User: Fold this.
Amino acid sequence: MKNIKEIIIMGCGPAGLAAGYHLARKGIRPHLFDKDTSVGGLSKTVHWKGNKFNLGEHRFYTKYPEVLKLWKDILPRDLKTKKCVSRTYYNNKFLEYKNLYKNLGFNKTILCFLSYAKTRVSRRKSEETFEELITNRFGRKFFEIFFKNYTEKTWGLPCGKLSPERRTQGIKNFPLITAIKNSFENISPSLEKAPEIKTAITEPLYPKKGPGQLYEKIADYIKKRGGKISLNTELKEIEISENRITKAILNDTEYSPGEFISSIPLNHFIESIASLIPQTVRDAAKKLKFRNLLKVVLIYNKKGLFPDNWIYINNSNVKVVRIQNFNNWSKVMTVDRNSTMLGLEYFCGKNDDIWNSTDNELINLGLEDLEKLNLAKADFFSDGIVYRVSDAYPIDSIGYKENLKVVREYLDNISNLHLAGRAGTFGYDNMSYSVMTGIQSAKNILAGKKAI
Ligand SMILES: Cc1cc2nc3c(=O)[nH]c(=O)nc-3n(C[C@H](O)[C@H](O)[C@H](O)COP(=O)(O)OP(=O)(O)OC[C@H]3O[C@@H](n4cnc5c(N)ncnc54)[C@H](O)[C@@H]3O)c2cc1C
Assistant:
């Protein structure tokens, strides 16, 4: 192990905390910073009037044994397999995956199957956009009915402008694909079955008190081992000399890091060195854009509104994209066990009207959307809160890879910088990946190696 000066870790989400945990276990005392008031990043659990809610569903699943071990070491008793229900809502009805024609009706089902059959005989070779990927594999009719609305509401871009690569994983996890596969089971036996998807969707692991329970405990561990966690602290500026970060200004304080792990969104990191980097890198970085998340949380004085843990909304008459039912994740999420707490997800850009709406307007929008969908009646509404998350989703628009390459080539030359995490590497990734990149950054530092 080389002689390590102070290690600064930017971001107390899963990636930053995993890096801190790995270092703390090895007897090193890192200093973690986050601009937020609590730890967990996107995977936090928000504590509100004694209730607990999350920013997404946050199912725990991983293919990395090391990540699984970390999760289980931290929560040996409270991380349990959770049987989940998740359905897609289409045209004010729940889709019945084994019986799609019930939802679509005879004519639409035939059209879907015909357009799918067409893809089997005349597949195009190139799949350069998300639209091409789906129409090529499932047919245009399926694309129009099931993907277009949901995807465009989520990403704020036409499907023809979204890159296909990172979405192949995303679409595998979308329950509709299971539906389509089920529908075609007899027609096309060559379509593979995917047991790991079943685990990720229907039987993931889940902490008793929400995902934040795990990340809060990691933070406690780091502090117990002598590490420091400074919240409400934002990265302002960085100085680089001879390809090393020599100074970091956090709020108004200067630090001289030996090693520097950054898991904060790549655009924030680039802003901190903007005056030092070539124009081409700055231009490329500006094109790496993020989508914001608005979480509208509503409590209803009614138990058991629906059995789903989360619902994908594919209705064009509402703005909500996904709905979480927190009580179905864990009974301890609400103070009043006879109530139901729902989390409505809206995705938007910083300049969109919805992002700049007041909390009251957004709560009303949520109530109206749920009424329109026939999922909850506003008469039973008792309380609500709005939670705003900027830079939640890296947007993989066409060309993002080239811009990312320019940025990475520049940053990879900074010898004591280690990029980790989802937004930190501009990846559209889950907790497992973020934790793994955090662990890997810590390992690289311990081994005196440059980042991945
Ligand atoms: C709606 C939704 C649902 C999801 N569902 C799942 C799921 O079911 N399963 C799953 O595995 N994953 C899920 N994810 C993904 C998961 O939340 C992320 O992969 C994970 O939180 C990323 O961890 P991270 O540490 O890389 O980044 P983050 O969690 O984004 O943490 C980054 C941290 O950096 C801080 N920060 C940002 N800018 C600055 C700055 N300038 N200075 C200081 N600090 C800064 C932030 O406050 C934040 O705490 C979901 C995400 C969303 C949005």
Q: What stands out?
A: Confidence is low (pLDDT under 50) at residues 185-197.
